[in-house]
Amino acid sequence: MRATVAERGDEQNWVWLARIRRPQGRKGEVLADLLTDFPEKFSERKRVWLLAGSGAPREAELRAHWLPKKSGSAGEVVLHFVGVDSINDAEKLRGLVVAISREERATLSEDEYYAGDLMGCVLVDVAVAPEREVGVIEDVDREAGPVALLVVKGRSGEELLVPFAKAYLRRIDVDAKRVEMALPEGLVDLNLPGETSA
Predict the structure, then answer these.
(1) What share of the chain is helix, strand, coil (3-state, %, to 5)?
(2) Are 68 and 25 in contact (CB under 8 A)?
(3) Which of 16, 50, 52, 78 could form a disulfide with 7 if both were Cys (CB 3.0 to 4.6 A apart)?
């Protein structure tokens, strides 16, 4: 089981593929952090959308893309858009998110989930009686190790890291924004200052 493609955008209409970090080269290329497990999807499409924190999405045409070959560049992609031909042009794209509409996203198998679908869901621990609401999933960290970590905002505002392991997962209801997991005893309490397990 894995969480794939990263985040959701405004109104849950978008699937984020990459976040532009900075210009790369002198001809308008940009270096971006990959937010997808499917970098090959850049080869299958020329049209993408650029999203900013505010303002309307902007359509863009992808001229070329490639994965950097330098050491330590895992999780990065270089993108070159039509009409972006200089460092100054590329600088204007810094911080934008490269996205596709939700209708265009890849079909996943039964044990795969879009990370964007998980974000905003309430994580509920069903291993205890009564079940306990742990918090709201804010992010999915896929770089931490072999198992993705759910980054959860706990009930008191603290950040909790919960392994997104198939052994713990009981049910995901995306429509109800609810993820049920049977968490190991003490896992949540380790992260909650001032709380002790019953």
Answers:
(1) 15, 40, 45
(2) no
(3) 16
**Which CATH superfamily is 2-104 part of?**
RimM (2.40.30.60)
> Domain 119-191: which topology?
SH3 type barrels. (2.30.30)
Paired residues of 47 in beta bridges: 61
Residues of the chain with CATH 2.40.30.60: 2-104
Q: How far is CA 38 from CA 22, 51, 102, in A?
A: 21, 19, 15
Alpha-carbon distances, residue 195 vs 44, 155, 189 (angstroms): 50, 11, 6
Residues of the chain with CATH 2.30.30.240: 119-191
Tokens of 153: 């905002």
pLDDT tens, residue by residue, 157-194: 889 999 999 899 999 998 899 999 999 988 877 665 55
For residue 162, give both structure tokens. 């919960």
- The token duo for 12 is 């849950």
- The rounded distance, in Å, linking the Cα atoms of 63 and 88 is 18
Q: Decide if 5 contacts 106 (C-beta within 8 A).
A: yes
Contact 124, 108 (CB under 8 A): no
Look up the pTM and report it.
0.58
